Amino acid sequence: TPMGKMGILLPLATAAALYANINSGFGALAASNRPMFYLKFALLGLAPLSTFWMGMLVPQAVHCYWLTASLTSLAQGSILRSQAARSFLSIEPVIPAVVGSGARHAWGVLAGDAERGVGGGTGSARGGGQWEA
Question: DSSP H helical segments within 4-127, as ranges?
C-alpha cells in the first residue's frame, strides 16, 4: 500500500471516531423517534464505511485533520451533555423529548405558535415568538 503497513490505522481510527460521533449525537432521540432511528442506522452503516474507503485513498495528513476534528467534536458533545458543565457555563439544562407527541421538539415549542396556528405548534421559527419548555 502507498501508506505502508501501518497505513490502515489512521483510516480505521477516523472511521471509528465518526461512528462514535454519530452514535453519541443521536442519543435517546433515535430510541423515541422511528425516522431518526432509521437515519441513525443508515448513517452508522454508510458514513464510517465510506470514510474508511475514501481514507485509504487520501494522504495521511488528511486523517490527522479528520481525526483531530472528530475527536474534538466527540469531546465537546460529551462535555456539553453533562449537567456539571452546563451549570458551570450557565447553559440551560436539556429539556427531555416528549415521547409519542408530534407537537413538541426536544427543545420545546415556540411560544405563541399554538395560539396563532403557526406551524402546528411544532416549534416553527415563523411568527417571532420565544422558545419555552
Answer: 9-26, 29-32, 34-55, 60-81, 83-88, 113-116
